[in-house]
């Protein structure tokens, strides 16, 4: 044998004890598909990869100790895996942080008995225009891209003594405290929210720390307003123009989404409510936000998932608005608001009863409707038929796929896991 340290050399030289049958043959437990190219390589020193899984073949070669073959296969794998990424690769943002952060982190861990989260691990990413913000366990870093200079780090927050669970970014604030060139980034942990204003030069100022009073489930910007919601039935709003933080009690919230300047809330009483953040309406009698019921589910089921699609069709009286929502009983419904029927509210357009568990996520886009239920992330997808940009039933939506997304990792490994690992477009991507 020309490979002295291989399994086969040891076997034939007697260094490995063997049992032979009556014909003197040695039995070897092997994978027939992977073993054929291995024997061919031992005979000819040539490698034939046609119809062979390289990863499986490499593991077999490692098992038998065929080092020259392992090296060739590793090289083959490297050819298909580039550190520069594929055609979609746009840039690499190196981790640049001072030792002060690490000292503060481990000092904080020594004082707390909470689970340790690697301070170098990016937990959440949010983007808006040409800015992105990366949230680590106890600080956030903002990056900006320019055509001339590429990606650059612009702002890093001070070390925070609490673990970040939610972030939001607004790269185009109108009417901010320092003019229209302000950028704003917010971070939340449990019931606390901290808000920074960032100038073009990269200097950042803390605007304030606000409390929702209950755990924050969603954090995002609508125009110049920072919005925080909680499933317990509270909505917090910070207005960039008035510099005022306001907390509003509503019905317990089971889902939410945005459409233009509107905040839509799906609630456990079966109703979908909306707040117009552009008009920022306040009731005269108690100065509360005006929360208006938009639609009520015909089965009175809780609205557990919500997705709004604004079609390109517009008129002087408004947009053609399409809303897909899922319920606690597993129903998926699509309702439509015509510009001509604004006064009468949205009309029920389609209903699908393909889930038997509560719908946890939903997404309606130009071409597809996607829903996910609580049964091991069971996903159903449809193709959406449109006529002149408007959803149509002639022909109707066509079932496309049904599958499950199984996960063997921890469901909630850290406080920000839900925000940073949400599935699909509903995971905050459309808002940013």
TrEMBL record:
Keyword Phosphoprotein carried by entry: yes
One Pfam family hit: BTB_2
Domain Potassium channel tetramerisation-type BTB: 3-69
Transmembrane segments: none
Location relative to the cell: Cell membrane
Record-level GO cellular component terms: plasma membrane
Signal peptide start-end: none
GO biological process, one term: protein homooligomerization
Domain of life: Eukaryota
UniProt KW keywords: Cell membrane, Membrane, Phosphoprotein, Repeat, WD repeat
Database matches in InterPro entries: SHKBP1/KCTD3 (IPR047876), SKP1/BTB/POZ_sf (IPR011333), T1-type_BTB (IPR003131), WD40/YVTN_repeat-like_dom_sf (IPR015943), WD40_repeat_dom_sf (IPR036322)
Main location: membrane
Protein family according to the UniProt entry: Belongs to the KCTD3 family.
Task of the protein: Accessory subunit of potassium/sodium hyperpolarization-activated cyclic nucleotide-gated channel 3 (HCN3) up-regulating its cell-surface expression and current density without affecting its voltage dependence and kinetics.
Subunit architecture: Interacts with HCN3.
Official protein name in the record: BTB/POZ domain-containing protein KCTD3
Origin species: Sphaeramia orbicularis
């Amino acid at each position: 044998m020309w490979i002295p340290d291989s399994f086969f050399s040891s076997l034939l030289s007697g260094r490995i004890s063997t049992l032979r049958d009556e014909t003197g043959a040695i039995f070897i437990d092997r994978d027939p598909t992977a073993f054929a190219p291995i024997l061919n390589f031992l005979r000819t020193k040539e490698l034939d990869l046609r119809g062979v899984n390289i990863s499986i073949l490499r593991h077999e070669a490692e098992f038998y100790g065929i080092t020259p073959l392992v090296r060739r296969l590793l090289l083959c794998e490297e050819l298909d895996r580039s550190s520069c990424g594929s055609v979609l690769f746009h840039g690499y943002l190196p981790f640049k942080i001072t030792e002060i952060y690490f000292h503060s982190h481990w000092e904080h861990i020594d004082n707390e008995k909470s689970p340790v989260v690697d301070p170098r691990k990016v937990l959440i990413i949010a983007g808006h225009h040409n800015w992105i913000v990366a949230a680590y366990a106890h600080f956030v870093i903002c990056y900006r891209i320019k055509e001339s200079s590429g990606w650059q780090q612009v702002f890093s927050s001070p070390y925070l003594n609490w673990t970040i669970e939610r972030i939001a970014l607004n790269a185009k604030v109108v009417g901010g405290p320092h003019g229209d060139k302000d950028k704003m980034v917010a971070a939340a942990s449990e019931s606390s929210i901290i808000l920074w204003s960032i100038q073009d030069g990269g200097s950042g100022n803390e605007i304030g720390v606000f409390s929702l009073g209950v755990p924050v489930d969603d954090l995002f910007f609508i125009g110049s307003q920072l919005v925080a919601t909680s499933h317990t039935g509270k909505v917090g709003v910070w207005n960039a123009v008035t510099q005022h933080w306001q907390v509003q009690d509503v019905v317990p919230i089971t889902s939410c989404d945005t459409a233009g300047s509107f905040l839509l809330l799906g609630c456990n009483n079966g109703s979908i409510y909306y707040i117009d953040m552009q008009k920022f309406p306040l009731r005269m009698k108690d100065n509360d936000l005006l929360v208006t019921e938009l639609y009520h589910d015909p089965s009175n089921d809780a609205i557990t998932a919500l997705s709004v699609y604004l079609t390109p069709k517009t008129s002087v009286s408004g947009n053609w608005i399409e809303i897909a929502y899922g319920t606690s009983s597993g129903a998926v419904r699509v309702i439509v608001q015509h510009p001509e029927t604004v006064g009468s509210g949205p009309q029920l357009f389609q209903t699908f009863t393909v889930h038997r568990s509560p719908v946890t996520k939903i997404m309606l886009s130009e071409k597809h409707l996607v829903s996910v239920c609580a049964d091991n992330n069971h996903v159903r997808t449809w193709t959406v038929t449109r006529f002149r940009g408007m959803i149509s039933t002639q022909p109707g939506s066509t079932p496309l796929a049904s599958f499950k997304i199984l996960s063997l990792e921890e469901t909630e490994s850290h406080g920000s896991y839900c925000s940073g690992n949400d599935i699909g477009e509903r995971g905050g991507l459309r808002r940013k």
